[in-house]
Amino acid sequence: MTPDPVQILRPDGFNKSRWTQLPRDVLIGHQAIEQLPDIIADIRPGRSVLIICGGTTREVAGESVAAVLKDRYEITRFIAGRLDSSTLDACAQAAARTDFLIGVGGGRVIDCAKIVSYNQGKPFISIPTAASHDGIISGRATLPTENGSVSVGAHPPIAMIADTGIIAKAPHRLMASGCADVISNYTAILDWELAHRIKGEQISEYATALSKMTAEILVKDANLIKPGQEEAAWIVVKALVSSGVAMSIAGSSRPASGGEHKFGHALERLMPGKALHGEACGIGSIMTMYLHGGDWREIRSSLARIGAPTTPRDLGIPDEIIVDALMQAREIRPERFTILDMGLTRESAEYLVSMLYEE
Q1: What is the mean pLDDT of the chain?
Q2: CATH numbers and ranges of domains, the chain
C-alpha cells in the first residue's frame, strides 16, 4: 500500500497526543520517611514490597524504611552492588514475588529499582539518600556498559520521598554534583533550541521554560547551598524534582541533557569513576555555554560558590583527557544534535579547556 490512501483515511483537525507520566506523591522534608506508611496507604500498591538498598544506604536509611513498614507489609530486601545485568537479573527474581518496589539510596540503587519495576510493570517508590542528580524522579535510567553509560527508558516513580535530614548528612560533593547537574540545564535548553532551528526537532516550550527556571533559581540561591544544611537539601531536591518533571513533560531527557551531558558520558568512558555525573556536566556546561555565546562566567561562578569543580585540575584529570572527551562527545547519542556536533576542532577544544582556568 502506498502512503497516499493512508493520508486520506486520517481525520481532519488536530490529532496530536502525548502521554505524560508524573509521580503521584512527592514528599520533601524533615523526617519524611516517617510518613512513608501514609504515602503507601494513599497509593495502595499492594501488601508485599521489595526494598532495594546499597551496602551503605541500608544503614543510612534502608533499615529505617523497613522499621516503619514491618508491621503492615511483607518485606523482602535486596542489596544492589554494581548496576549490571547480573544485578538486574537477581533483583528481578526477588521482585517477582512482590507487589511493589522501594529504591533507597543513590543513583545506582534508584536506577536499579526503576529498571526492574518498569520491566515487570510494577510501581516503585524513590527514596534518595543524596541529592546528586535528577534521576531521583525522572523517567530515564543510566545503565553502565562496556562502551560507557547509556540512558534507557523507564518510568518515573509513583512516589518520591526525600528526607532532608538524611540528604543533608551525605557528603557535600554529592549535593554539589546535583546542583551542577541542574545548572547544566541552561546549555541543554540552548542545544535543544539549536536542534529545533537547524534540524527541525520538535520542542516543548513548557518543558524548556520549567527547566530553565529551575536552573535560574538554583543559580540565584547558590550562596545558600552549604554543607550539612537541611535548607540546602530542601532547595536542591526541589530543583531536581522540577528538572525531572520537565523531562516527563517533554517525554525525553532533552530539557536536561545536551552537549554537556554527551561530554560527561565521553569523559566517563575515558576515565571511569573519576568524576561524578553532575560534576562532569557542570564543567561541560561552562564550555558549551561559551560556544553558545552565553555568560559562561556566571555558570562557573555559581558552581564555584556551591563547591562544585570548575576545572580538570579540581577533579585530578589531565587537561588533554578533557580535550579528548570534547572531541569524542559527538559519538555519544549521535542522533541528539548539540553545539558539539557542529565541527569543533581540536585546537578549539584545547582553548575551551584553557579558558576554564582564566581569572
Answers
A1: 91
A2: 25-169 (3.40.50.1970), 172-355 (1.20.1090.10)
